[in-house]
Specification:
With about 180 residues, the protein is an all-alpha fold. It has helices at about 10-40, 45-50, 55-70, 75-85, 95-105, 110-115, 120-130, 135-140, 145-160, 165-180. Helix 8 packs antiparallel against helix 9 (about 145-160).
Length: about 180
């Protein structure tokens, strides 16, 4: 007696979809690893590159999750580099550091961890004034004439603003320092 073979069309369709997904995951992972091989990259940078290569978001998310587990993504290294490189004459406020790390595509939890372990904004501003604007800062400290002192304070505050420090924070810092 002959036996009838029945094909389940839904199973075949799911199998084909699964094969297509696996191929897409493989292509996306290969593209990501080639991109990451060039230099240290963050999750966000890799995500932008894969999106530009027209991979679907669900594929990108899955690939990035696996690459993070496998140690290919370098958010920690990049955050540490930003924190270390933005000191002394290149000092920036925590606000500016956060913005810089976000622009690099570093994950928010990693940004928060590195900012919490960093020195305070007060220390960063002191480093900036001592290393980048030392002559202007010394002139401010030594000046007795009120109008000239005010003008120097305005210059220092403006320069610190470019590094993410707020007016009030800078003015309080300078007033505190001048009264010592």
């Amino acid at each position: 007696k002959r036996q009838m073979i029945y094909w389940d069309y839904n199973q075949i369709k799911k199998s084909d979809e699964n094969i297509e997904k696996q191929e897409l995951l493989s292509k996306c992972r290969t593209a990501a690893i080639q991109y990451l091989a060039l230099r240290t990259r963050s999750t966000g940078q890799c995500q932008k590159k894969l999106a530009a290569d027209n991979f679907p978001k669900y594929i990108i998310d899955e690939v990035l999750q696996q690459l993070d587990i496998d140690g290919y993504l370098s958010d920690n290294e990049m955050a540490e580099f930003v924190i270390k490189s933005r000191r002394n004459s290149k000092a920036e406020s925590h606000l500016a550091l956060r913005r810089r790390m976000k622009n690099l595509g570093i994950k928010e939890d990693i940004i928060e961890t590195y900012l919490q372990s960093n020195v305070s904004d007060k220390v960063l501003l002191a480093e900036l004034f001592a290393n980048k604007f030392s002559s202007l800062f010394q002139e401010y400290v030594d000046t007795e004439e009120p109008n000239e002192k005010y003008n120097l304070k305005v210059k220092l505050v403006r320069k610190a603003n470019n590094r993410g420090f707020t007016d009030d924070f800078c003015i309080n810092f300078l007033n505190q320092y001048a009264n010592k």
